Amino acid sequence: MDYIICPKCQGKGILEGKICKTCSSLGIYTWFGGYLLFLKKAFSRSDTMAFQLGSLLRIIINILLFIFGLWGLLSLLKIIVVFSGFDIVPDFLRIWLNQWSYLNLDQKELVLFFWFSVLGDCYLLYSIEHQQEERQKNWPKSIRKTVEIPKDWLETHRLAEKYKIDVASAFSRETIKLIQKAGALARKFKHQKIEPIHIFAASLEFNDIVLAINRLGINWKNLKGKISRSLTKIPAFKGIKSISYSLETKKVFLYAYHLAGSKNHLALSPLVILESLVNFAGPVKEIFYDLEIEADHIKNVCLWSQVYDQLIGESRHFSKQARFKPKGPINRAYTAVATPYLDTYSQDITQLARSGRLGICMNREKEMKEIFRNFEGVNKSVILVGPPGVGKTTIINGLARRMVTEEVPKVLQDKRLVSLNLSSLIAGASQPGEIEQRIRTIMSEVVRSGNIILFIKDVHNMIGVKTTEGELDVSEILADALKNRLFLLLATSIPQEYRRLIEGQALGEAFQKINIEEPDKNTTIQILELHTASIESREKVYFSYGALDGAFELSTRYLHEHFLPAKAINLLKEVAIAVKNKRGQKSMIKAEDVAELIAEKTKIPVTKITEKESEKLLSLEVQIHRRLIDQNEAVEMVASALRRARTELRSAKRPIVNLLFLGPTGVGKTELAKTVAEVYFGDEEMMIRLDMSEYQEKASLGRLIGSPGGEKGGQLTEAVRRNPSALLLLDEIEKAHPDILNIFLQVMDDGRLTDALGRTIDFTNVILISTSNAGTEFIQDEIRKGTPVAEIQEILIREKLKPYFRPEFLNRYDGVVVFKPLSQDDIREITKLFLKKLSKQLEDKGIILKATDDAISEIAQAGFDPIFGARPLRRVIQNQVNNVLAKYLLTGKLGRRDVVILEKGGKIRIEKAEEL
Amino acid sequence: MSLVIALIKSIFLNTLGSIIYFPIWWYTQGLKKRFLGFTYGIGILFHNLALKIMFKHLFSPMFGERSKMGRIISFFMRLILLVWRFFLFLLGTAGRLVLLIVWIVLPVIAVWQIIKVLILI
């Protein structure tokens, strides 16, 4: 929005302590609809009192006039009943009228009062209507399009006064109170000007604003604290006589007028002022920014309050108009023909809409216009193509409602929208040619009737339905009729099925395709606001704006299988029930509640990080080392990646982290992957493990992502689709075919992969870890030589891995981690870990396991193998300990409360517990 | 004290201005609104009675009866409907016209009656 600011006083309105002569203290102008806007009236105490007293007086006068009017009517009744001498009037009425002492006047006086009361009634009517007109007068009557906008202050003088509007004249009663309170606040703090922060502080006493702040989930104490700190920062002056608006405040009000005007409001309410306040840099915006509230949030919350009024207005308008829509199948021109056969296989949606059983469709103006444009212009049948849940049926319902109120192009006026039920069309058809006969009869009725627009939901289900003779596809019969433009058809389908079955076919050619996309953020939020009304009244809980915003953000990010707005609406319905069950009725649903539900559904930690979790994240290395010995570099790299992911400091369009683990077998590569799955996803089973040695052939690509034309997805894509948040472990990656590695280039870079069925699978919540034994010998040799790991890593990437991986493939990894071969000491530590695990298993049986240091060293010695790492160790423990204990358990030598001690020389001693 | 006087003055002047403006408004803005309401009402009535549609389809067969007899019956049936609806339309228009006339003459009659009674008293 552009402003014209007084060049002399720079918008302050005051120059050297006096009123600026150039602008007469107006300071600033702006434009709306070809009219010049300014803010002048300051609403001093006397102004406000005069306004309030004037309003009160007007109400009193109106009440008196109403009573006077009633008295006039009674006077007229008495003249007719008592003085005209009608015999038919019952006596009790005459007696009743005579009882009224103030009607005990003679006929002339009664006539006089009656006519006075008539004048009074006229005045009452005038008073009410004139007041409404006065309110409307504050807004441009029509937009002046051919107006040259003045470039500077001087040019504004040339404009006629009737094109200048003081926005103060449009203030609602509450806004006037708000200004007065803001002025009082400025006076209290000895401030010279009313700043936006005063306006904001004063606005917090108004119901609409209180509701908006509550919806935003703001802590009142916190907010008030911030406001009072902001107020104390403004310099105070002594002996202030008059207070005026600051330039920023003027801008806020001028913009608020703009907002209210563009929404066709008749008064400038505190809610619009709040919406305007956050659009200007300054303390108010800063406070909201600090509270994680953005201008868009405020805008949507303000719309939320208005959505209920809009709903009421819309339903009133609808029921008024719906009365004139014929109830039956016959149109207003009586030209339609009854369609008894069609009626058995269909449902009249316009009749459903007429009886108010279809929901309101809002924010779908663009799609609706496209449908109308198509019917009007091309006169071709229309197919709405969009994923399930984007609102195709809602649009159809909205169209039916519009057909009821006749707010549609001529081609749709006086028509009915009839939905053909495919299942009942096919059901029970056993005779040869029966389906064909049915569809032909239906179409003939539709054509003959002339007032039917046919609707077929999920029209792709019709393809492949053969007539019982098995020769003709039902859709072909339909396509023929549509090509001849015998009637208009409205259909819906989903993109995959449309591409697979309709596009390029006879039926596809008969349709004009309209794509229905997922709505954008603001539209989705507004749709959600519309739906919260029914959820709130049903579940008796309240939604904060954060919950709506969270439902949009989190469902967009984590629920890829479903589409907006349906998935967000369903999420809100679920969370409402969950919160009601957890915290009871009248609870406020916050963003955290939605996040909790998403975390529960997807197993991804999306809730805010608690203090306990912060501690856990900071000590990730320690936790990992509880399961993994040494490999510090690898552990550190993984831990840092997890911390980045949890604090949202990673790219949301790539996997959480892509890592390549290199090293000899048995050094803990897989163990680290399992540990990561347990730490980040809460369970080591949250791992998709693919042995890449099974994908050595190019042909195995089909197994990975599915075969074209097939009905199943691939092993990789299906697993990630079903479990989008997991650890993806690609074992022995070097053994995969190079073409298969190319597939992972896209996964690692874009975080998505399209399977053979055309579905895009999301990999952005996956931790991708590849393991490889490539360059093992080199690693072992270099470690033995004492070469630093960083150097080994460098040589590996530059030279040794080249025969296995292309440079662009290696480049996609966030880290290439070299696992060192295990030393004798490492093996000893690992032995302790293994025995600890075994000890836990025995604990469940009530048996205590102990091992002497010598025994541990002996086992470690026996299990140490520089080539196979820790793998032989597992076998040694299995043979020397597990097998013996199993025998003891079976023979009953070992029982509850016994102590097993591993000793030197592979001996196992049992200390029997005392008999009880 | 001066504030109170200023207040009373402002309210008194406003009320007085409002009373003076009343007859002017009645025969300008008010009358214009009533006239626009009258024409709008007639338009709605015309639409709701589907007069235009009925007239346009006067010779169209009703309910798809395209036979000769069907056409003849349709024509006469439509004619009866049209005449009846036109009568309803006239009735509605007359009612609305009466209301418009009442708007114009009511204050005049009231003032005239008041003067008449006052003279008689």
Brief synopsis:
With 916 residues, chain A is of the alpha/beta class.
In angstroms, what separates the terminal alpha carbons of chain A? 90 Å
How many alpha or pi helices of chain A?
38
Q: State the separation between the terminal residues of chain B, measured CA to CA.
A: 44 Å
Indicate the proportion of strand residues of chain A: 5-15%
Helical coverage of chain A, percent range: 40-55%
Q: What's the number of extended β-strand segments of chain B?
A: 0
Name a few traits of the molecule.
A: 916 residues, alpha/beta, six-stranded mixed β-sheet, 38 helices, globular, B: 121 residues, 3 helices, 88% helix, elongated
Describe this structure in words.
- The complex is a heterodimer of chains A (916) and B (121).
- Chain A is an alpha/beta fold and 916 residues long.
- In chain A, 53% of the residues lie in helices and 11% in strands.
- In chain A, helix 33 (776-785) runs antiparallel to helix 34 (789-800) and helix 36 crosses helix 37 (853-863).
- Chain A starts with a strand and ends in a 5-residue tail after the last strand.
- Chain B is built from three helices and no strands.
- Chain B is elongated.
- The two termini of chain B are 44 Å apart.
- The A-B interface holds A 45-46, 49-50, 53-54, 57, 61, 108-109, 111-112, 115-116, 118-119, 122-123, 125-127, 129-130, 133, 324, 330, 332-338, 414, 448-450 and B 3, 6-7, 10-11, 14-15, 18-19, 21-22, 25-26, 29-30, 33, 47-48, 50, 53-54, 56-57, 60-64, 78, 106-107, 109-111, 113-114, 117-118, 120-121.
